[in-house]
């Protein structure tokens, strides 16, 4: 199925991805991973919840860890351009027959909760508490020196359907993978903020979250993190990489948190703000698609993901197989 033309005047204006809430089973173990190892900054915490931000971020949180009996993802959140855009989003989702509710979230103004075309929970807000800048407080930099949240990647049972839906709310495709045999999409990368993606979609049992990515200053920070993880009890949490992606041209590493939520450490993709930017097409069987240097991903990378709380995933309709490491 062809990529839809960019929708430059969507029904409401999403600025960028903002944050994600993970259900975690051991808050202390998650804190050791995200704070002591990765270097995210705690902005508030109690016995039930930890709020975190990365070094460049002025908003109160980009990651919320909530103590739960089972690991889960509670929602993916996006910032819109103004309060008016929130009302437009509410009315648009309601008109499409999606559930809509105004919910209360600490450190945020009005927050709209709804869901995408697969039932994956989405939240939208404009106002979040603003914090003092810390990006030049170099004494605070630790771990991999995370600068900002960069993107989500989700398994979905129908990538063509995902691209069609997210196109309607203004997400523009930058790169995509096509299955040559059927002509259907196997994966797609879509953005609002002018990078390669705010959210990407991968063919598979879904909806589930495949990973959440944080931007770091340089590939050397990734090497330093690997040395740290390898010598502090986290060698089993290193899943794939480091490497250079074919798609996005970014330097990457994939790691798993103590509950199995996958985190990507990511840097150096490219600018995509031109409204007439041509999307780049990849063949599913191109060995340089996943990793420019040719190394394929392990099977776990194509199968393991995080469940959304209360959302039952369904099997993918496309059965095409990517290149998997032996
Ligand atoms: Fe990614």
TrEMBL record:
GO terms for molecular function: 3,4-dihydroxyphenylacetate 2,3-dioxygenase activity. It comes from the Bacteria. Keywords: Aromatic hydrocarbons catabolism, Dioxygenase, Iron, Metal-binding, Oxidoreductase. CDD domains: HPCD_C_class_II. Its EC number is 1.13.11.15. SUPFAM superfamilies: Glyoxalase/Bleomycin resistance protein/Dihydroxybiphenyl dioxygenase (SSF54593). It holds the Pfam family Glyoxalase. Residues 16-127, 148-268 form the VOC domain. It is an enzyme of class 1 (oxidoreductase). Its cofactor is Fe(2+). Belongs to the extradiol ring-cleavage dioxygenase family. PANTHER family: GLYOXALASE FAMILY PROTEIN (PTHR21366), GLYOXALASE-LIKE DOMAIN-CONTAINING PROTEIN (PTHR21366:SF27). NCBIfam families: HpaD. This is 3,4-dihydroxyphenylacetate 2,3-dioxygenase. It comes from Mesobacterium hydrothermale.
